């Protein structure tokens, strides 16, 4: 009993293990397909019964029964599992063999660079494998291979698209040789295999590419040969080919019929020839000497003698030839020669010059009148010169009309060779003759020229037309409006300017309206009855005919300057010129001049007002400031003395500014007069330097003075020259840094005395050089200088008043140089100014 229990325990454990592995459940499920869950519960129940309910034998019996059933099921399941394991092992071995074989086939397949594209049946998605770098960059998407236009030229790409569509739709295989956009030669092969459309693309190289190219050339040569053979067989002319030994190697059916042979073989065996012996000898000699032979020869075919154009040429080691029937052309040529001779005899009797040029633009016929008309050499004409040569010779002899562009004129004349209708023209030759020229295109492509001398008939018309044309062109080109009215008061002549000026209709004016009608049309712009009565009387009067000037101010604001002028034939000419712009400009200038005069007067008034209203109080303040600073008025506290010093400096600066403004205003108004006299250069520089001594000491700036020994003196206003130099030195000191040097120098040239003031300040930017002399143009440029900006303006004004010039040279960061030229001869300056 215990052994049975142990066996059952082992069986249960095995069953439990099988259950863990999922096999027992599967077996029970196979045995009890209707209740797999119940089988699992049964196993759990058996385990519980064996472990905890050993005393209940009844339950044990049931369990044993079930256990037996389970053991049988487990045995069957184990057998199935063993069999499945063996099959699985065999299957895995087979799969390994197949995988190894697939890897070997894949290695063999991609041993060379190529691309495989496959489309499963009924599926538009392509599978791409292989080395796509042979057509696209390595980082490209494989699907871009299907866009053939990205790596093939347009025509091969379209050919590839059509071939792939035919392969997928109908299973049509193909083999193409393609050249990529980068010059690589590829081979594309398409096949339908196992329900799939497969395209293989690989690069042709070496022998295989040469073989493919050879096959292509062979196919092209074969197609060309077949085409030429078909053409030769269909041609109605005898065509033949001979070998190096002169034996017949090819002949078309026309050759066989011409030699009355039964076949090509018969002609070869019997050595039948198309030409007679003399002509054959001439052809062989021509082929030997010139590699080709061309001649028109008689040939007897079918008992009939006909004319043929025979052409032969050496090809390789042999020769080929063709004979084209030219009998009709020869007959027509003879008839044409006879007809031409008849026409020549007829045309030689005409007084008109006739010249016929053929399709190659060479002279084919001329009559004697043509030769006499142009006085050309008969030998030159008989040499059949071309049209251009004839025209060039006539131009060299100055017998053609003078042309500004002869080449363009000749090209236009030669358009007759492409025309479909005749054209007529008149040539006016340098010798005074006039020729009527008719160019008629011929059906065969040439041109016939017909020349007639129409000098006498055109002479009077030319003179009259010339006068009318000159008159009309002159009037039409005038900016003035011109109208001529006859003695009957009707308009006879007018120009476009007259029509535009009065807004009339040109068609209505061509109907020769009366002056009263024209007056009615013009009333919308000008309706002064007195002026129009004056115009009517001048046009229709017979006596007292004289020029009458007019000036019309019209309603549209325009102003016309008119003239009524009688003509010798009783007519009257009216001329009108639009002077609106001139009047407006004159009016604007007059108004501007009046405004400027008023401004000048205001400036003078301002100068007088400032002179009285501003300078007088300043003088009073300055006087009282000096009085307060005098010890005789009593002692001042230090603070009062400091404030008084500020007042004195401020009033002095204000007085200097006021004086500068007055001086500039006086100069600008033209009221400044120079007090000329001898100016000692050294003394002038000394006086100017005294005024800046306190500023030099305050800013610790050294003044460097350089005066040339021969500078001497010159004629000028000493006071204004000192003022110029003082302003320049003050400006230089104001812009110079502390502990620096300001220089002033003077030298004499041939016609002037040159003062130069230099500083080492920040300099003047290039865009500011033209503005430093403007009024109130003051810029510190990072220096201590502050001012109203009038010093340099005064400098330029005073120097120019002396007839001199001022210029500034400056480099930013390196200082400024101001140069003043004072002319030494003031008399010459005054004469030049006058």
TrEMBL record:
UniProt keywords, alphabetically: Kinase, Membrane, Phosphoprotein, Transferase, Transmembrane, Transmembrane helix
EC number, as in UniProt: 2.7.13.3
GO molecular function per UniProt: histidine phosphotransfer kinase activity; phosphorelay sensor kinase activity
Family annotation (InterPro entries): HATPase_C_sf (IPR036890), HATPase_dom (IPR003594), His_kinase_dom (IPR005467), HisK_dim/P_dom (IPR003661), HisK_dim/P_sf (IPR036097), PAS (IPR000014), PAS-like_dom_sf (IPR035965), Sig_transdc_His_kin-like_C (IPR004358)
Domain of life of the organism encoding this protein: Bacteria
Pfam families: HATPase_c, HisKA, PAS_7
GO cellular component, one term: plasma membrane
Reaction(s) catalysed by this chain's protein: ATP + protein L-histidine = ADP + protein N-phospho-L-histidine
SMART domains the UniProt entry points to: HATPase_c, HisKA, PAS
Keyword Membrane: yes
Transmembrane segments: 58-78
Residues of the Histidine kinase domain: 609-826
Record's protein name: histidine kinase
Organism whose genome encodes this protein: Bradyrhizobium nitroreducens
Upper lineage: Bacteria, Pseudomonadati, Pseudomonadota, Alphaproteobacteria, Hyphomicrobiales
